[in-house]
Queue: 2 jobs
Job 1
Amino acid sequence: MKRKLGAMLERTLVFVDTSYLLASFYNSWETGARAQLEIDLPEVVGVLGGMIENQLHQPIHRQLWYDGIPESGPHRYQRALRSCDGVQLRAGQLIAWGERRTQKAVDTRLVADMVVAAVNRQYTDIVLVSDNAGQVESYIDDPENNPSYYATYIWSGPEGAFSVVDSYEQNDQRLLNLYTLGSTEGMASYNVILDQLIQENFTKMITGDVSLDAFDDFAAQWISLGGEQITQEVNQAIGR
């Protein structure tokens, strides 16, 4: 899955659900042959990166691989990822859940990192390698035994955060950031305050602590705290 974002530089950030990708390799083999399968993860990283760069025609800033680390410590695939250039292993825990093991804080960390990357507008593209559909279906069918899929459900489920993306595309409502240069003087002076203002207000609107009717008040506050200067600088830079 790919999302296009307004950004300062033409570059891509890749999010990989490690357990999903490894499972897809194993599941493609006959059961009796799986014990013989040895995955060359550095090669997988390189092939994945090449595929994405060829499709998007722009460099990858970093690949973030998410996985749960068992109590005994990182397994060989996780250690291999740590040695790959351009890759960061983002780890949660692998804990016992009844008779099986499940990940804890892995999906949540992935979603949180995606949201922060989108809010900071540092990348033009985000690529997600994950079995979202399977996780959503598993959570809907049996939420009690699939608690680790809740984070995926709330952002990519039937009524999740990304459920309106298709309608945006169909109705030509997607608005890209046309400004791709460095920080303006106003951004350098006010972005810390404005970013905090955005995150606080958007969080309150999402959680229902304030009404969506409060957006106009938020916008007026954003303008008065430096947004007006930034808007003027950006419009001048792009010739508007």
Job 2
Amino acid sequence: MITSADGANGTPTQQSGSPAWVEERIQAMDTLDQQIQVLLEGAPNDGVTGTAMTAIAPTLKAIAERLQHSEYYVLQTLDQGWVMTTLSNRREPNVRRNIIYAYPTLADAGAGPQSVKDPQLMAIPTPVTHILFQMLALKSLDSLIFFETPGNLKQGVEIRRPEFQALLQAQLKEAQGYSDGDVAIG
């Protein structure tokens, strides 16, 4: 489900045994729980959305835990619209994909393909679970690319919509009250 932007399987690597890494991971898990709680509290009180959010929360958290940062910088317009980049395939110019890039630092966001030097764009620090949730909200979004290493914008971790939706759909089907399979994600 999570692959490098260059197509290789991409599980982020860390230096194991590092006390700083262990402490950061523990703090990130607490932060991820808080991020999920904010998403749940912001869900519409329509009797369905909150229940569905509760059902998919463990999957959102599990995906977020595989990424290296609990917060990334995402480019947004002045009216808080998320900036998507459309990529086309060199071999198949008619094949296009809409991507949102998530950067580990503000400097990286400024060095990305969509520069924050544009006065109409801002790089906003955004919780990782909220970025993942945007995959559901933005129907035209095909992938999220998370750049993990500050200063390296050549390789990132890609999360593709079809795999992401399949995971969430499976989680909904397993959750109590959604065993009939009629609930759809995205």
